[in-house]
Amino acid sequence: MSDDRPRRGRQAEALRNDTLVLDAARAVFAEGGADAPIAAVAERAGVGMGTLYRRYGGKDELLQKLCLLSLEQNLAAAAGALAAATAWEGLCDYVRTCVGLAVGAFGPLAGEIEATAEMTRLARAVRRRVTALAGRAQEAGDLRADANAIDVLQLIERLSRAFPPSGDPAEEATRRRQVEIALAGLRAGAREPLPGPAPRPGDYERRWTRPRPAAS
Predict the structure, then answer these.
(1) What kind and span of H or E run contains 186?
(2) Quick one: DSSP state of residue 142?
(3) Chain centroid offset of residue 13 CA
(4) Mean pLDDT across 12-29
(5) Average pLDDT of span 57-84
(6) DSSP string covering 89-141, please?
(7) 162, exposed or middle or buried, with CB in 10 Å at 0-12, 13-18, 19+?
(8) Predicted confidence (pLDDT) per residue in 169-210, tens digit
(9) How far apart are CA 32 and CA 146, in angstroms?
(10) pLDDT in tens, 98-149
(11) Residue 75 binned pLDDT confidence (cut-offs 50, 70, 90)
(12) Would you give the DSSP letter of residue 209?
């Protein structure tokens, strides 16, 4: 019994450190992109570089973990939205949840880091689930006919990058306002058609199948 206690203590500390590192990394890389130094993550988390490297082998491994977490959150949000009472309510809740979590903040990393098989699998699952969500809203006459699931995903990505969660009340109010403006633009009944061609269904997960680009 006594032998277990130190191990539980170390495990609890490791879990706390891991949470601190991931929260810090999400903020650092959402703000600075893939070029942000990994030392900034350790500094923001309040842990030493040794602690960070014991959990992650380097920046790419940490970025892969962040992308996986974001894809998992996206998938979970879409699943919850499909269970909503109405199609439009579900779609709106999905967009609000994803932007609030900044799940699209790491979209620009696609092609910058090596895509793992799990990242590709989750990206495909997200696209399928959001396609079902958007289709449900269109069948109900709520989502404009010339918008599709990839439009929704790309919208989330752009709003996530513009407003990474900061805790600042003014920024949060601006973010919520921008989300509602965007949702109003997705609503059926718009007078003018959307410009340009609609994004293709494969555009979303195709980015998560690229190998790491060769060094120049």
Answers:
(1) helix 169-186
(2) -
(3) 26
(4) 78
(5) 90
(6) HHHHHHHHHHHHHTTTTTGGGBTTBPPPHHHHHHHHHHHHHHHHHHHHHHHTT
(7) middle
(8) 877 788 889 899 999 999 998 778 888 888 887 777 777 776
(9) 34
(10) 998 888 887 777 777 888 899 989 999 999 999 999 999 999 999 999 999 9
(11) very high
(12) G
Alpha-carbon dihedral sign for residues 48, 50, 56, 61: positive
Total count of residues recorded for the chain: 216
72 Cβ contact list (under 8 Å, min separation 6): 122
What's the pLDDT at 155? 93
Coil, strand or helix at 202: coil
**Residue located via tokens 């969500």:** 133
Q: Tokens 């895509």 identify what position? A: 115
- In this structure, are residues 106 and 67 in contact, taking their beta carbons and an 8 Å threshold? yes
Tell whether the model's pLDDT for residue 215 goes beyond 60. Answer: no
- End-to-end CA separation in angstroms for the chain: 56
- Residue 140 contacts residue 87 (beta carbons within 8 Å): yes
Distance CA 46, CA 122 (A): 31
